[in-house]
Design goal:
By secondary structure, the protein is α/β, with parallel strands linked by helices. 47% of the residues lie in helices and 14% in strands. It contains eleven helices and eight strands. It has an eight-stranded mixed beta sheet with strand order 3-2-1-4-5-6-7-8, sandwiched between helices. Helix 1 packs across helix 2 and helix 7 packs across helix 10. The longest helix is centred in the N-terminal third of the chain and has 20 residues. The chain is globular and about 55 Å long. The structure holds acetoacetyl-coenzyme A (CAA). The site of acetoacetyl-coenzyme A (CAA) has 18 residues, from helix 2, helix 7 and helix 9. Keywords: NAD, Oxidoreductase. It holds the Pfam family 3HCDH_N. Belongs to the 3-hydroxyacyl-CoA dehydrogenase family. GO terms for molecular function: NAD+ binding; oxidoreductase activity, acting on the CH-OH group of donors, NAD or NADP as acceptor.
Length: 283
Amino acid sequence: MEVKTFGVIGAGQMGNGIAQVAAMSGLNVIMNDIKDEFVERGLANITKLLSKSVDKGKMTGEEKDAVLGRIKTSVDVKDMASADFVVEAATENETLKFAIFKKLDEICEPHVILATNTSSIPIGRIATQTKRPEKVIGMHFMNPVPVMKLVEIIRGLATSEETFKTTWDLSVNFGKTPAEANDYPGFIANRILLPMINEAVFCLYHSVGTPEAIDTVMKLGMNHPMGPLALADLIGLDTCLAIMETLYEGFKDSKYRPCPLLRKYVEAGWLGRKTGRGFYEYK
Ligand code: CAA
């Protein structure tokens, strides 16, 4: 199936990154969010990153303008009527995602694939909100989207081969390397990553080490590009907690219980980089 116009629901850190890579691959993009200020902030972030690429000589000014020219912003979800493929990258909240999929199913042409960037909500549950479960799939990008090479593609039980192939090919056209996962809690990426982050929070909770010590051990001892607590701050502690809850709920296994300290930070509004404070402070 040919995709020319690519819709993105959500202009936050994942949504604007996805919109950027789609526009860079030559697609026309509609980036949608609920408020003007959200889409403006998303577009400003894309503009900043593209300008940096121009400064570094990785792209010309004309190429930057062409990429930006391919991105339309929208605050009305009905604009998705002209998209050939939509990826939802809204907040990691099941009720919200269900409402978005119900709406998209009403608005979009019947042939349109509805993908979700969910980090852990079951694809099958999202698919049942629509009358096209065979066209619903997980397309899970990693943060920061323009840099990270992986797209985890998750098949729901009802996802068709055609939907899978179109999503796979699209990811390759974005310059990414796709990996296939089946629809179990946390899929592959977060089933492995989040218990490690949660264990790092337990190390802090049990005073095994300071945040700096914990992150230094994992950075220099295991060659991770950043320590697990710094990474949790990048992902967002609310998202980390939501994923741990999904793992715990999905497997009913105590090894996935979220650390009380993680919950305490989230309750205090210390969500990481986006609020200026998480395990570290950001000015
Ligand atoms: N957005 C876009 N580009 C960014 C960026 C951002 N937020 N942060 C860094 N970059 C770019 C820089 O501009 C730089 O680009 P050039 O090579 O063109 O100069 C490049 O990335 C390297 O950046 P830095 O030199 O500043 O720093 P670094 O080498 O430490 O890399 C990093 C930064 C890429 C974030 C690296 O630390 C890293 O890979 N960290 C781990 C990230 C990770 O694990 N992500 C997955 C999170 S899990 C997830 O997303 C799934 C989920 O569902 C929770």
